[in-house]
Amino acid sequence: MTLLNPLGLLLLLTVPALIVLHLFRHERRRVEVSSLYLWRQIADRHSRRIRPRLLRNINLLLQIAAAILASLAAAQPHLPEQQAGAPAAKVLIIDDSASMQTGAVPRLELARNRAREIIGRASGATQFMLVTAGPRPRIVQTFTSDRDVLYEGLREIRGTDGAAGFERAIALATSVLGEAETSLVLITDGAVSAARRPVFPPNLRTELVGGANGEWADVANRAVTVFELRTRPDGSAIEALVGVANHAPDPADVRLRLTADGETVSDRRIELGAGEERLFTSVLPRTRASIYSAELVGNEDALAADDRAFVVAAGERPIRVHLASKGNHFLESFLSVYPNVELTVTEQLRHPLLYDLLILDRVPAPSGLSGNVLALGTSLPDGPFAPERLVAVEAAASERQDHPLVRGVRLGETRIRQMLVGDWHPRTTVVARSGGHPLLYTFQDDRLSLVATTFALSDTDLPLRTGFPVLMHNVIELLVPVAPTGELGYARPGSVVPLHVPPGEELVVITPDATPLRFRPRASRLEFSRTWQTGLYEVRGESFRSHFAVNLLDTDESNLMPRMEAVRAETGASVAPQGAGRPVWRWLAVATLALLALDWFLWVRRY
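Structure (tokenized):
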């Protein structure tokens, strides 16, 4: 049994008060006597003595019982939900999106408290799993009945600046459920529109937090909802499209400022009606800036994550390509004109050289290579392919049409004179083959990303075909997907941002709250996923420095008004938010009234 209002037990203090009153009260009956002289002396001695048989007073016992039941009713006891036939396990899905960080008491903290109540009301044998429902849902705690572990898991949940992902969170939770009967509980503030609301399974119910008695506070919010930039075809200027929304019951007067590398290029005042969202266009004369921003200046509202947005021009650092070749006119010509490439050509592989992409053209490779490697007609000593001999190519090449490496390339029309054959690692992905022998393959582990051919370019007419530059472009996009210089963009909260660093070089990512995160990846590509905060991230390497931006830009998440009703499990019917469990305080209140009525009846009968 769980008490929702433990302060109600203070009514138990009336029990000693009742006993004291009964100990010293006088019982008087009307009796006709001839004289009061002797009776006064008996009454005085009797009043100074404690009654020897107090417990035989039925009225006192009834009043004590009524006081105890009344105090229990005021404490609002609830029986555990775990009854016969009830689910043996529960999944608590907690919304940790941007809107959950708002409120005088943050809604996320209210969600933690509601989760603790649900855990505390359940029987000790009930197992719980904790799942977040933010921009990238995750399992915080797998199934366990250890309350201390569950409470610690709740404390570890931190808010994000992204949009809610209910559908993905429910899919994640249901994907790990066993055969045991399980129920799902979604704890959220309901600040999501009907268009973004998934179809809830029948075993899910929702618990709404953030308001009391239907009154919701701290919902007024102004936000930047769109920030897109594009360069004019003639390169004379950059055009900006900015959206601003007023999610508030009153009109708002906001100031929108656009900057380029910290310099103000546009500053205007905007009047917005209640609930209005408008789009604005501006022409930015600066086309050489690397960081652009749109900001609501002096805006004080419930949510700060959507008051500012950034766009970063990619390609601040060129793609460093090291070509080890005894001479290949086709490769050198292609790489010399490829956008944003810094090319270094050597006849032998030199160490140490910093590179984003290493190309080996019929050059022996040392053992222990890491990073992004393109091997043409050669193999790595500790790589996935161990060559045995050269054989003539008799059958035409056939490629996997679904692989991005050969998109727009027809290797079947290419004439190849000879190729290497040998043993292959089982994790090797064969992209093109001839007569059962691989021609083009890929391999990736925690230190090496490899694209390789079993034939040399000198043994084929591929460099003379139009598919050669397309194939090389696909290789670079696959191994080093760095955006071309000048491309403008940003990421969403919770998304994965690929960061490129030469192998062995330390990488430092400084988050918007100035927290440095240090990495030394074994490969030259690091998948950075700690993008929970909106703002500007700085990336520092030993030989470069760059930035990337993370923006909310979600008008639905910026609208903090609850738009979702609670849903009860099994039926899916809309209900008002309420505590889980079986309340018994009503029955206790009825029993209290019955005892008081019986006490009154006996007192009347007696006197």
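The chain has five domains: 2-77+600-606, 89-217+560-580, 222-315, 319-479, 488-550. The domain at 488-550 is CATH 2.60.40 (Immunoglobulin-like).
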